[in-house]
Amino acid sequence: MNLDLPALLAQTALLLLMAPLLSGLIKNWKAKLQNRRGPRIWQPYFDVVKFLRKDMVISEHASWIFLVTPYVVFVTALSAGLMVPMITAHAPMSLFGGALALVGLLALGRFFLALGGLDPASAFGGMGSSREMTLSAIAEPAMMLAIFTVAIAAGSTNLSQIVLASHGPHWKFLDPSHALAFAAMFIVLLAETGRIPVDNPATHLELTMIHEAMLLEYSGRYLALIEWGASIKQLVLMSLLANIFFPVGLAADATPAAFGLGLLFLVAKLVLLAGAVVLVETTNAKLRLFRVPDLLSVAFMLGTLALVSTFLF
Amino acid sequence: MENLPATLLNLSLTGYVLGAVAGVLFLRAEKLANIFTFGCASMASLCGVVSSVMVLVTGAAAANQSVQLLPSLIPYIHFTIRVDPLSAFFLLIVSLLGFALSTYSLGYAKGFFGRKNVGVLGAFFNALLLATVLTFVADNIWLFLIAWELMALTAYCLVTFDHEEAETRKAGVLYFIMAHIDAGCVILGFLLLFQASGDYSFASLHDIGAQMSSGKRDAAFLLFLIGFGIKAGIVPLHIWLPVAHPVAPSNVSALMSGVIIKTGIYGLIRVLFDFLGTPPLWWGVTMLTVGTISAVLGVLYALMEHDLKRLLAYHSIENIGIIVMGLGAALMFLHTGHTVLAALALIAGLYHTINHASFKGLLFLGAGAVLHATHTRNMEEMGGLIKRMPQTAFFFLIGAVAISALPPLNGFVSEWLTYQALLQGFGTTDSLMRLIFPLSGAMLALTGALAAACFVKAFGITFLAQPRSKQAEQAHEVSGSMRFGMGVLAAACVALGLFPTQFVQLLDPLTQQLTGQQISAQLSLANGLVLASLTEKSGTVSTLGISLMFVCLLPIPFALWLVFARKSKTRRGPTWDCGQRGLTPQMEYTATGFSKPIRMIFKALFRPRRDVQREYEFSPYFATTIRFESHVEEVFERRIYQPLQILILRVSRQIRALQAGSIHAYLLYIFVTLLSLLLLFAR
């Protein structure tokens, strides 16, 4: 086993630095589409720095679970990111885990976040935890079916292998199974990153929030860590989608030019995907909580169809 | 030295017998009874651990021979035992758990002093461990069945230990009935096998299925599936499990959920992989389907519980389901002749078996500690225990993370192996049947995610936030021996999580015995740091690597604190209360509230019903009292077992007419029976 340290450091830096930008981009575009001026795309960086400098208030009911949660959320998102191919097809940590480990790591972060929501004894936190765990449980099978579809096609759960396989002789996206799996994964992406129509990231309206409700008691640098972790998770899932289903422009050899080109392609793919998210967010209304399972079962059906079509074609 | 494992096993068996005897001797001296019974049990199980590990590591041949345990007076009944790799593996599980539970019990049983007879508890506890060990090592149908029955009876006595309560007695009766339906099916199954072999020793039954007609083989499969399935708690044969496990003392609950239900798994593996020969396809399909259904329904019903121990009992059904999924996949691979994949699926199932024993044992011990401290099983009366019982909370959290299949602990590893087996199964056949693999995989994902939701609830409501009752407020940390017992199992969860490739090596002799393949070398990469699914290409994971990654990435936040947050201060303040005057525990989220979204989403299954009665003065907004009741329908009880029960009662009422109490009538029955038998057979 040889560890590629430069690639590891580079991808860590990329995840850390690019994640807030992606969030900023989505916020800015969403505002534009809604005829608002909106925050600058750099705003999330300023937010993180501002939060980091602020004093913290920690609930007197909270235990050490509340204190370790931000670290867990941040570290799990980052570790998951190191397993996803971003600029090259070879993710630095792909040996340590593939698609299943990625899902597990994100679930670990979510598990602690939900506990952190319950810890300060506030009903809002409990509400958020309950909803988050429920919706993620419904989203999980759909996501797994989509992952299985590509994993079966590639004969591997290793994300680098999957990307290499769909890179293969012809563009797999034209396969019905991959297109359907992409649709399923896109819906799951909306749910996992807390986007409209599942959750509204912009609201602090008490009775509708899911993700934000769990964070209600966090402040200062811990809030910065969780927000940053959430944006890293979003970046990870979006690069996963981008690179599995559109594996174009990945750096083939280890030259600076290839890396530059790879980065450019990655940014382009993420920008397109972000555009799609923004369009969905702007043209849809948030669903009532008990309508969300319907949407997720659509994703599940799409995943099943994707599998069946692997079998048929 | 060659004989050491066998000697240790004998020591272990003797230890349990001594413990049981000590319990009877010290019936009136509870302190002595406590020390001697549980002391003997912990020593005996320690011997068992060493013995079984030695057999698995060295493949000690001495242990793998039939040994006469006791001389027998009846010619064809032999009490022979043999520790082959399969037995050794299950011996390891029962001994490991037995050790942790016995030390835990030293502290836990003190709670019964002056209230209940500890001697009785200790004696039956030892007898149950003895019977379980004998079940695993029996080399003969007779000894197996005797041990099986002894296990059922001692377990019944332990379940009804708190027999003053009506709930417990009722649970005991249900357990007793189900245990005997199960024993009946197992006996019938063995009779079918005996018919073909003509001998009672297990050696003569090896691959006996090849000599049986396919109809008899299928009948035997179904009988064993029902018989062992009841013991294991497979849906829909599970109904006794969530009733009987919670009412027993917590150390016994842990033993029952951790080990006793595994005897069903042991029986299934022994019979299906050792005795019945190459299986037809539908056996595997049945097992995989039944396992999937058990997993999903087990976790769904667990979510509806707010009784901490019942919740854990339902999770046992879920985990047994996951194990059976692995076994079912292995059977399907054996059918198609993919023995390497069969070994992989079998490893997944076996790995999950020992994992479930360790984390479920741990969780039940944690629940026992909570029960000890708060005197309630109702989660709605707990809360805030993490500050009052910090170590118990920490151990329970480890168990919760492990059972939710989250990396880097052991539950994740075995579910990862199960996923890999299912995914690779897709390529083994061309028929539509192959869709069953990924679809069960998706259901496994649903199960895992729901289990995580359930344990956020179980841990969060029990240990976090404010205490919801006086008892919870006054709770205290439990004694050292109880914490030690939990610590042992927590350490096992961590070790099994971080070192999977090393553990899989122990399973090599097992897969060699049952599938003819040794695959641990193919599962290990980079000097055992990375677990691979047969090849590097088809998927790898490293829990140790993931943990190292966590450690290496953790400095990043601290560096950020140094750069940006040097001047920021931290203070404690009240939780935001919307401007009211302070939060009370009543305002917290409840366990019932937490699972409400799931109850609503799956309402077709749960058929939730609620009654709300309010009394008010002046206006409905100012209620003086509110009564809230919420029910979930237990589908299997209502739809299958109740009609069956009614039918059986009706038939027996009809038959009762025969028993009129007149001796003349009885003489007539005898005469008629004799005559008809003569007519039938004396031609």
Structural summary, described in words:
The complex is a heterodimer of chains A (313) and B (683). Helix content of chain A is 69%, strand content 1%. With 313 residues, chain A is mostly helical. Among the domains of chain B are: 589-631, no CATH class; 637-681, no CATH class. In chain B, 69% of the residues lie in helices and 6% in strands. Chain B contains 29 helices and eight strands. Chain B has a three-stranded antiparallel β-sheet. Chain B has a two-stranded antiparallel sheet with strand order 1-2. The interface between A and B is large, with 93 and 91 residues. Strand 1 (56-59) of chain A pairs parallel with strand 6 of chain B, so a sheet runs across the interface.
Note the total helix count of chain B. Answer: 29
The average pLDDT of chain A is 91
Radius of gyration of chain B: 27 Å
Biggest pleated sheet of chain A: none
Structural class of chain B: mainly alpha
DSSP helix fraction of chain B: 55-70%
Strand order of the largest sheet of chain B: 3-4-5
**Helix-strand category of chain A:** mainly alpha
What does the overall shape of chain B look like? globular
Approximately what portion of the residues of chain A adopt beta-strand conformation? Answer: under 5%
Unreliable stretches of chain B (pLDDT < 50, length at least 5) are none
User: Globular, elongated, flat, extended or rod-shaped: what is the shape of chain A?
Assistant: globular
How many beta strands in the DSSP annotation of chain A? Answer: 1
Number of domains of chain A: 1
List keywords for this structure.
heterodimer; A: 313 residues; mainly alpha; 11 helices; 69% helix; globular; B: 683 residues; 3-stranded antiparallel sheet; 8 strands
